[in-house]
Amino acid sequence: MGKVNSVDYATSAAIKISELKAFVAKNGRFPKNNEESKLYIWITIQRSLYKKNEIDENIYKELDKLGMVWDYSGTSWNAHYNEIKRLLNTEKSSASIRKNPPLSKWLLDHQRYFNLLDEDKKEKIEELLKLLFITTGEKEYKRPNQREEKTLKERKTVE
Were both Cys, which of 8, 131, 139, 159 would link to 88 (CB 3.0–4.6 Å)? Predict the structure, then answer.
């Protein structure tokens, strides 16, 4: 494979940035993976290059000005956390979370894999679970991993 022509690359990038600006101006957001697939793929590649510290500086500046989310997974995590916290604080009921399958699944998954989370996220999930505990009227709050620890202790005594 030959060397990439920097003029062609810059021209191609300028075209994609122009397409993205038009999309954002029309829709008020970046494209999702089921629309404008070529543009979405280009954005995904730029995000990947950013993570490897290989993105072109001019492309980075243009995308950043448009509001590019560079670490999408962290943003998504915070959005779910903040929405659950808001629902628990305002509605004082877990029903609103149960009515929202993606939020409910997110919380259940994080409760299930609690031990694998970093400390900051463990604290945040525990805070949500305590709020949830208060709204459900349970008699005793247990940390997500307490049941697992008890099961392990029971297995060891049997063996």
Answer: 131
